[in-house]
Each structure stands twice: as C-alpha cells, then as structure tokens.
Amino acid sequence: MPTKPTPKQLRKRYLSRPPVEPMRLRKGMSVVDLVDVYRRAGAFNGGRLAEGCDLFGRMIDANATIALTVTGAMAPAGLGGAIQAMIEAGFVDLIVSTGANLYHDFHFALELPVVQGHFQVDDRELYRAGIERIYDVFITEDSLLDTDAFVREALEKAPPELRGRISTPRLHDYLGQLILRNAPQPQRSWVATAAKHRVPIFTSSPGDSSIGMNVAAMKLRGGQTTIDPDLDVLESTAIVYDADVNGVVILGGGSPKNFYLQTQPTLWQILDLNRGGHEFVLQISTDSPQWGGLSGATPSEAISWGKVQADMLKNHVVVYSDSTISAPIVFAYALSTRKPRKQRRLLDRLDGLYRNLEKAHEKRHPGSGAMRDVGKATRKSR
Predict the structure, then answer these.
(1) What angle (nearest 5°) sits at the alpha carbon of residue 96, between those of residues 95 and 102?
(2) What is the pLDDT of residues 269-294, one digit of tens each?
(3) Which terminus of the chain has a lower count of CB atoms within 10 Å, N or C?
(4) Helix pair angle (350-364, 229-242), 10° resolution
C-alpha cells in the first residue's frame, strides 16, 4: 500500500508553482505585455486567459487543423473582423457557427445599419420604430427584410450544382462568393473572407436561423436547394479524420460546440475508425458546468465521451469570460507572436476528404454500401 505524503512533502508539492505577482501596468503596453501581466499574476480568469493565449499559440505551432465554433450574437457585436483576421493569417481552417451569426454578418457587407444602442430602452418604442434589439445593438426591420431578399434572390439564381441536396459549407460558400462579387462592402464580411480563402463554414442547426427560414420558404416557390445535415456530419468528420492534429477554439458553446466535438465519437463509435479524441480545446464561455448544460461542459468532461484526448490535459483550457472581451485578446496575441500559416483551403479539398473517409469505412467494413450510396448522391448533386 503506498505511503501517504507527509505534510512537509505536500507543502513542497503545492507551493512549488510560480508565485503570484502584483499586476504592474505601464504606459504604452502591447497586448503581449498585457497577457504577460495576466500570466505573472496567474489568478482567476486573468490567469486562464493567459493560458488560453498560450494554448492557441501551441495549436498554431503544432500545425493543428484548427476549428472555430461560434455561438451568441458575435456578428452583431462586431467580432466578425477578428474572425477575418484569423482566417487571413491561416489560424482558422474551418468554422462551425449558428446561422444567425452568418445572417447578421451579411448586414455589414450590404451596408445595412447595425447600430450601437443600449439595453436600458423602451422596447415598445423600438417595436413602433421598426427596430430590433440584440441586447445593446440595434438593427432595423428593413435590414432584415433586405437581407432576406438577398438570400432568396441568391437561391432563385442558384447554379445547377446547388439545386439538390447540399451541405451547409456549399451554401455558405456560394453566398460568400456573391458577396465578394456584388456587395458594396465585401471586406466587412467574414463569410466572404472565408469563401475567398476556402474556409468551410458549417451550421449545425441550419433551420434555426433566417438563412434556413428562407431556404425553407423557397420550397413554396419551387426551390430545389435542400440542406442535408447528414452531409455536414460526414464532411466535418472527414476533415477531422484527415488531420494529424486537431484543435478548436470554442466561443460560447451550444450546438456548434458539440457538432465539432462529436466528430471524434462519429469516428470511433459510429464508423469504427478510432481517431483518439481532439488534441487541443480552448473554450471561452460565460456558462458554468454545474448546471449540466452543453455550453458549460468542460473539456475534461468531454474526455469521458472520447471527444478529447485524455493524455493532453495541459492543452485543455476554459476561460470563463465574455467572448467579446477575451477572444480579441487571444486572437491579437496570436497575431503578435506567430507568423501567418499556409492556408489549408479545405473547401477545395472536401470532395477528396469525403472519399478518403468513405474508403476507410469500406476497408474497415467490406461490402458496406450505405456510405457509398450517400457519397454518390452527394457528388451527383454538386
């Protein structure tokens, strides 16, 4: 039976960590200097933020295939510009987002008003004025209607390869390309930036946004574009299966978080192709784990599901903070300390990655035809 450590041994073990340093601020500090202040203090979520910055840097250094998942009203809050910077630097290779964030991103490119408002306001007056409120951001009713018209017109003019069953990255790429070519301010759209740099954008719940509502409404007008969530599951899993190392930055949580993390159980539990769990996980969330909600579920909890690698605990960090505060610091620190990476342009490789997953499954289960049938229908519809 092992001997219990003595109190002296326990003190030595627990007090061997770096001391807490008072935060010394000075004029003209850079974001790197500020993160170093958080690192030296090391306490509470300032310390976790410094750990998150270091973790994102390690993802980049490891040449991981990095996903970004986005929930909450991040586009209306202006975070889209920070996401664009990550795409352009090659620090984000794929995105999983709520459809609402993509829809509201279009407002900026179409020059539709997104205005700094206030949360202490009479919402009855806003309703009479035709203004919608997202906490302290104001968007006009006309902005919504004009964005709806843009999506519907795009679907009416969709090319043959989009008139059938498609995945959400195919739809979002098409809309992003239209913004690049026709919108007054394409440089303000991160959906357009993703299309330009061939970064796939998945939406885990495509019907849960105005984009999905417009796709559905077009069915009443003879529209033939159908979003197939099964293809999203397989294409995202194919990306993860292909990568040597996988990492993710999770803004918020919710469905996009689980949609990405579930790629690992899809491999080992459903397809019998053991990938081993994601290597790097950084989550920024205001939720907490004791309520049992997905947003607050910690990376260590995800280990029990085979979503995250158990032997890489140092590469799992949760920063309990508002993403509009912490994400720009994490991203700015990466831009200041890492060189841009060669972009993976995963959109251009999706068909090949899908076929690789298909072949791996066939090799593991000879004679299985289900995935072959889905794959044929997928490629036929493109």
Answers:
(1) 90
(2) 999 997 778 999 999 999 888 888 76
(3) N
(4) 80
What is residue 224's three-state secondary structure? Answer: coil
* pLDDT tens-digit readout, 52-73: 999 999 999 999 999 999 999 9
Within a domain: 2:
no
**Greatest CA span in the chain, whole angstroms?**
77
Please give the residue range of the domain that contains residue 203: 45-381
pLDDT of residue 382: 46
- Whether 40 is covered by a domain: the verdict is no
Q: Do 201 and 95 meet the contact criterion of CB atoms below 8 Å apart? A: yes
Residue 71 structure tokens: 């929930």
Amino acid in the structure at residue 235: E
Q: How many domains does the chain have?
A: 1
> Has 376 been annotated as catalytic?
no
> What is the rounded CA–CA span in Å between residue 301 and residue 277?
12
Q: Cβ–Cβ contacts within 10 Å for residue 223, how many?
A: 17
Residue 219's pLDDT is 93
Higher pLDDT, 305 or 110: 110
Instruction: Please say if the pLDDT value at position 314 is more than 90.
Output: no
* Any domain includes 53: yes
Residue 4 gets which letter from DSSP? P
Q: How far apart are CA 39 and CA 42, in angstroms?
A: 5
Asked if 92 and 330 touch (Cβ cutoff 8 Å), the reply is no
Whether the Cβ atoms of residue 348 and residue 76 lie closer than 8 Å to each other: no
Q: Which of 8, 219, 307, 342 is flagged as catalytic?
A: 307
CATH code of 349's domain: 3.40.910.10
Tell how strand 131-134 and strand 137-140 pair up: antiparallel
Q: How far apart are CA 374 and CA 381, in angstroms?
A: 11
Which helix (H) or strand (E) is 95 found in, with range?
Answer: strand 94-97
Q: Which phi and psi angles does 305 have, rounded to 5°?
A: -95, 0
By the 8 A CB rule, do 95 and 132 touch? no
The model's pTM: 0.92
